[in-house]
Amino acid sequence: MDIAAQGCVWTRGGEFLTYGRGMDGATWIGLGTLVAAVVGLSLVGWQLREQRIAMQAEFGNLYIQRYWNIDDDLLLTLKGSEEHRRHRHRYLRLFEDEFDVASLGFLNRQQWRAWHSVLDGQKALDRVKDDLAVCNPDEDEFERLRACIRQREREDAIHGVANCLG
């Protein structure tokens, strides 16, 4: 009978080691523990990944809700009024908050790309610049948003979220 079929392996020292047969209970318990640990760690990793996805979705929904609240308020107030200016400031704050949260990895990458690309259109970019001039003429707020706009002007091109300095 073949020695390998009997559960033996030839070692360097010329001795046969038996595996499968003749292993004591402690060895089996150790192997079982190892398998359970690997499965457990895999499940923990999967759970953490799922929690991160849920957190990103929650943040995304929160920012979408904030956007629509601000948009509704802007539509219902008289343009040029102090209240309208305040809502424009809220919009800029929303944008800046999105930059902050995205930089921490708390937003879904595809969602952040879509929101960031709003600045790709010249009309939208001009509106945001106008909002900045009206709502923060001292230029002491909205650093990330301003950095993104400066980068676009300096490079004379749009850029992706991975290369954004904001």
Could you walk me through the main structural features you see in this protein, from its secondary elements to its overall organization?
The chain is mainly alpha-helical. The chain has one domain (4-163). Helices cover 66% and strands 4% of the residues. The chain is built from five helices and two strands, in the order E-E-H-H-H-H-H. It has a two-stranded antiparallel sheet with strand order 1-2.
What is the gist of this entry?
This protein has helices at 25-76, 82-103, 109-116, 122-135, 143-155, and strands at 8-10, 16-18. With 166 residues, the protein is mainly alpha-helical. The longest helix is centred in the first third of the chain and has 52 residues, at 25-76.
